[in-house]
Amino acid sequence: MRIDIITIFPEMFDGAFNHSIVKRAQQKGHAEIYLHQLRDYATNKHKNVDDAPFGGGAGMVMMIEPIANCIDKLKSEREYDEVIYTSPDGPILNQKTANKLSLLNNIILLCGHYKGIDERIREHYITSEISIGNFVLSGGELAAAVITDAIIRLIPGVLNDETSALSDSFQDDLVSPPVYTRPAEFNGWKVPDILLSGNERLINQWKHEQSVERTRLRRPDMID
């Protein structure tokens, strides 16, 4: 899978993409991530990518030309399944969306800034928009990093145990059950006996019951 990210702050991704699962996915050849400095596609000598909004108002708007130039160049080199804008007013990212995106071959992520991007980009270039929550960030880079991480970990071969992703929270519309590891007792606090029983059927039943109860208590918005 190839992910192209258009940004004015490519250095913000250094930590997110050069460690842990995302780094290993790139090293194994399961994922390719390319960062594109939007200012390289600006048409003026000062490499400006923003300007004052027509009609007045506070803040600046990301200009249409640099973004269009960058996307046009990328699309001239390969086909893209999605051109995604990280927008606070887009649908909120969920596990089903991450699952769907992980099956694609090539996507573009456009990181917004300032008061947003020229609306004509949204009308003529963007195929979908994604938000990571009902709040506003300084820019779309953190959102793009979250989206990238959520997608890449689902690609077959990325995780050492592929079944791990299938048991994550939200995969079955429930949060995950509690988990434990050694020692079986610490400070008098014991691991539930069922997890030490070796009875796979009863253990799976317990895990499901715990997931349902945790979802009811902690995420009642997910209960139908």
Kindly describe this structure:
The protein has 224 residues and is of the alpha/beta class. The chain folds into two domains: 2-152, Alpha/beta knot (3-Layer(aba) Sandwich), CATH 3.40.1280.10; 167-222, Orthogonal Bundle (Trp Operon Repressor, Chain A), CATH 1.10.1270.20. 33% of the residues lie in helices and 15% in strands. Strands 2-1-6-5-7 form a five-stranded parallel beta sheet, sandwiched between helices. Strands 3-4 form a two-stranded antiparallel ribbon. A two-stranded antiparallel ribbon has the order 8-9. It is elongated and about 70 Å long. The model has no long low-confidence stretch (mean pLDDT 93).
What's the short story on this structure?
The chain is an alpha/beta fold. It contains 8 helices and 9 strands.
The fraction of residues in strands falls at 15-25%
The CATH architecture designation of the largest domain is: 3-Layer(aba) Sandwich
Task: Report the sheet with the most strands, covering strand number, pairing sense and barrel closure.
Answer: 5 strands, parallel
Tertiary shape: elongated
The count of DSSP E runs of length 2 or more, i.e. the number of strands, is 9
How far the N terminus sits from the C terminus, by CA atoms, comes to 34 Å
Helix content: 25-40%
What are the defining features of this structure?
Trp Operon Repressor, Chain A, single chain, about 15% strand, alpha/beta, two-stranded antiparallel ribbon, about 220 residues, 2 domains
